[in-house]
Amino acid sequence: MSTSQAGQAELAAARLMLERMGISPEDLALAPESRVGVPTFAEYVPVVAAGVTPGTLKAYGSYWNKVVHVWGARRIDEPSPSDIERLVEEVKLQVVARRNARGGRGAAESLIAALRCLYRRAAADGHIRDGDNPALKVAKPRRLPSTRRAIADTRLEEINRVAASTGDDPELDSMLLRLHTETACRRAGALALRPEDLDSDQCLIFLREKGGTVRWQPVSPTLMQHLLRHGLERGAARGAALLRYRNGGPLTYRRYDHLWVRVGERLPWVHTQQISTHWLRHTTLTWVERNFGFSVARAYAGHAEGGNVAATATYVRATLQEVCAALAQLTGEPHPLA
């Protein structure tokens, strides 16, 4: 008997054995692999958390903790898409109801994104196959349009006036508002500034922001002078944070929170509409786009070349004042916001 004939005989014997056991070749193909040493969520989440950036950990950390609380003893390859969908619904029900709540959409989206991140790492580490990521089979909820928009000039003047005349450090708060208004930077970009990030000769600051993006952003000579003096007077050392409290401690996100609470107490519309620092980004980018075009606005925002243009479009869509102006022209009656 030749080698080929022997191989055929072994295949025939194998098929006969499978038939007697009631198993088809298709059943073998569909059967899950026996994975030895696949970690549990309680074991693997700390590994993933230790390897991500601080920004990613801030965004996903609470959701990974939730996963560990619910599935800690389960292996990471056990949950199905249906299990994830049930967990998403559970998280949506536990969301704290706020005035700007959207039915837990944000929490659902963040949980799915957190799980996708975890499973991508698991695939890279060889714990699952690339095609076995169950989070990819769960659709994220459709993101609703942001309620943020550009702030009218008169309203922005009110905000700056309150910031400059109240609080325990009005000089700091005024400089913060001017920094964000001039550069349209995010809070993280401002807090990451260091003394060596200031190019006083060319009036440029080096911003490190979302997604690891970096850029040189122009500022006015006046703002540059204030930043330089601020760092000098408050003891900002090279390699350390530039923005500091009076006692020399580095600024944190809480300063922004306290600032807007204080402004909202004196300007009820700020509290009602939940105005925040990010509204200043919308305000500046809208003005740049209207006066210098979309390409300049995109560069001003620091959005990556070749990326999704919708990111910039989010910031420069028509303002409420422009809609009111259209209504005034349509009806022939003046409108207070037009």
Automatic annotation (TrEMBL):
Domain Tyr recombinase: 149-328
Assigned protein family: Belongs to the 'phage' integrase family.
InterPro entries in UniProt: DNA_brk_join_enz (IPR011010), Integrase-like_cat_sf (IPR013762), Integrase_catalytic (IPR002104), Integrase_recombinase_N (IPR010998), Tyrosine_recombinase_XerCD (IPR050090)
Matching SUPFAM superfamilies: DNA breaking-rejoining enzymes (SSF56349)
Pfam entry (one): Phage_integrase
Keyword vocabulary terms for this entry: DNA recombination, DNA-binding
The protein's name in its UniProt record: Integrase
